[in-house]
Design a protein that fits this description.
Immunoglobulin-like, 4-stranded antiparallel β-sheet, Ig-like_dom_sf, signal, Ig-like domain-containing protein, TCR_beta_variable
Length: 106
């Protein structure tokens, strides 16, 4: 499987569009994560068969889309605030649902 994410720059601006491409059509779920400068990965949301779902706290400020062939997904930052600073990641997986697991730090 090949996976590409653009842009590679480490800054973002209003209406910044991040794009993720993969070549395995069996992977019908595209996920987007934010890693703040001081913290772990947080799931922003995901698209299953082109239908986006946003996690609590990420319902506004982001727009997730997915192509009909399931091989491309985009994340648009539609508003800017300090809580959106960090590194953005995408991932792909099989399945029709995603469960978030909370990991405790000790």
């Amino acid at each position: 499987m090949e996976f590409y994410q653009t842009p590679f720059e480490n800054t973002y601006k209003l209406h910044q569009l991040f794009t993720c491409n993969q070549n395995d059509s069996a992977l019908n779920t595209m996920l987007w994560y934010l890693q703040p400068h001081q913290g772990g990965l947080t799931l922003i949301g995901y698209a299953v068969l082109s239908n986006p779902t946003y996690e609590k706290g990420f319902e506004s400020g982001y727009n997730i889309t997915q192509s009909n062939d399931k091989k491309k997904s985009s994340l648009e930052i539609s508003s800017i605030n300090p809580t959106q600073e960090g590194v953005y990641y995408c991932a792909a997986r099989e399945g029709h649902s995603v469960r978030e697991r909370q990991i405790s730090r000790t």
